[in-house]
């Protein structure tokens, strides 16, 4: 069964990519476009997906065949693309989200105008007077709704570029300054985590990275402001914009999955409202190069705590363990794309229909190994007071619940995240920090 699943994923990846993501070599397009790729256009596509200021990702390492989902197609309600989103969410729980504007018309011919990708998705956190948006309606679960929340992917990508630079300023601060903002002693996972202050296994092996976590509730003014270094004062509007755009993407994904699960309209999004108190956060992760003769796991194997993770990174190092496999495979970073994965809350809400897959971070491969790896992440989590349990009102979930039996003790999202986040800190309870990856044991 596991081998069949892996084969299906690889077939789907080859059929839908314009190039094999493992080598970006040209393949005949079979995604419905009528045009063919010549060597010049495929080379241009390859260059566009690479990071020009960094060494190339090596072609001789094993990569996981993630599906590439186009945000522009999801926003247009493209059923085939939504099918692929559902497939990726159920089978691996990881996929690429292509944030580029759609520059082709329906017949695949290049359009002279570049479509401005500033669309709306359903939600209740929209500005009173939307700007730069399309005036359209959409249907979900048979209910027509006005499109309200904006997604401006061009703005998001600009925010990402700026936030990578801001992250460098944070980690360039002296250690004695950064540790002032380690809030672990106050029972909080926000703020700074120092190099080696996390553990990667039950033996207490120290991690090899630094974190800085920024609370969404702090930035949006929903809670008291947390202490932070001065370099994070002026960028607050950029951080706010990044969080709003990322959360809008999360809302879109949740609504599409909500429909496929045949839940009542807005069930999943109503558990993840932007302006409700939650553990949502921006995180910078900073992992300097490791000594050549002493390279170890930078971030231990785990599943994510929450619902949806949106990751931007530029160097390799992220690895996924495909279902039924013992071989870790790299995720190749692609420019203009986010890597999206589902977390444990989605497993709990759907009784295991949706997947939260185990992953880890190691030293970058090939020529990238001597470069510092930094990533930017938005973690969307259920609201603090939500109980993590299978949702009512879906025949699919009800049937799955019968297969699984007892769900175990109920726990709130706030308790779940605190237990897992602080359990991976030095001195924490590693065994209690497990999520759905607990099926594996440390080697």
Automatic annotation (TrEMBL):
Residues 1-48, 121-141 are annotated as: Disordered. Keywords: Iron, Metal-binding, Oxidoreductase. Transmembrane segments: none annotated. Residues 11-22 have a biased composition (Basic and acidic residues). InterPro entries: IPNS-like_FE2OG_OXY, IPNS-like_sf, Iron_ascorbate_oxido_reductase, Oxoglu/Fe-dep_dioxygenase_dom. Coiled coil: none annotated. Residues 31-44, 130-141 have a biased composition (Polar residues). The keyword Cytoplasm does not apply. GO terms for molecular function: metal ion binding; oxidoreductase activity. Residues 278-382 form the Fe2OG dioxygenase domain. The keyword Iron applies. PROSITE patterns: FE2OG_OXY. Belongs to the iron/ascorbate-dependent oxidoreductase family. This is Fe2OG dioxygenase domain-containing protein. It comes from Elsinoe ampelina. The lineage of its organism: Eukaryota, Fungi, Dikarya, Ascomycota, Pezizomycotina.
């Amino acid at each position: 069964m596991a081998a069949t699943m892996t084969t299906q994923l690889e077939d789907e990846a080859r059929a839908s990519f314009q190039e094999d993501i493992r080598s970006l070599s040209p393949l005949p397009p079979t995604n419905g476009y009528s045009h063919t790729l010549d060597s010049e256009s495929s080379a241009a596509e390859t260059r566009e997906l690479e990071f020009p200021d960094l060494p190339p990702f090596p072609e001789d390492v094993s990569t996981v065949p993630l599906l590439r989902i186009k945000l522009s197609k999801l926003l247009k309600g493209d059923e085939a693309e939504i099918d692929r989103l559902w497939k990726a969410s159920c089978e691996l729980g990881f996929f690429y989200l292509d944030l580029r504007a759609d520059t082709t018309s329906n017949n695949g011919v290049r359009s002279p105008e570049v479509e401005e990708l500033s669309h709306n998705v359903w939600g209740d956190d929209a500005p009173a007077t939307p700007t730069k948006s399309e005036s359209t309606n959409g249907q979900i679960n048979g209910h027509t709704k006005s499109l309200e929340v904006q997604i401006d992917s061009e703005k998001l990508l600009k925010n990402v570029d700026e936030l990578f630079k801001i992250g460098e300023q944070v980690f360039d601060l002296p250690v004695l300054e950064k540790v002032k903002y380690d809030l672990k002693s106050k029972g909080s996972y926000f703020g700074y985590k120092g190099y080696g202050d996390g553990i990667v296994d039950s033996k207490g092996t120290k991690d090899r990275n630094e974190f800085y976590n920024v609370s969404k509730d702090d930035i949006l003014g929903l809670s008291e402001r947390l202490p932070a270094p001065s370099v994070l004062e002026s960028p607050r509007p950029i951080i706010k914009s990044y969080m709003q755009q990322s959360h809008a993407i999360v809302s879109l994904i949740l609504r599409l999955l909500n429909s496929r699960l045949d839940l009542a309209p807005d069930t999943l999004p109503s558990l993840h409202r932007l302006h409700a108190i939650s553990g949502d956060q921006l995180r910078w992760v900073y992992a300097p190069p490791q000594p050549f003769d002493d390279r170890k796991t930078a971030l231990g194997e785990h599943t994510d705590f929450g619902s949806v993770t949106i990751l931007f990174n530029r160097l390799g190092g992220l690895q996924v363990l495909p279902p039924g496999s013992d071989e870790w495979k790299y995720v190749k970073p692609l420019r203009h794309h986010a890597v999206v994965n589902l977390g444990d809350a989605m497993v709990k809400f759907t009784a295991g229909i949706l997947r939260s897959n185990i992953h880890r971070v190691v030293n970058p491969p090939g020529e990238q190994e001597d470069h510092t790896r930094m990533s930017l992440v938005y973690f969307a989590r259920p609201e603090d007071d939500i109980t993590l349990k299978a949702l009512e009102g879906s025949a699919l979930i009800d049937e799955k619940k019968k297969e699984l039996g007892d769900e175990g003790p109920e726990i709130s999202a706030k308790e779940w995240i605190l237990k897992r986040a602080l359990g991976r800190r030095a001195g924490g309870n590693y065994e209690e920090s497990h999520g759905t990856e607990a099926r594996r044991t440390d080697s």
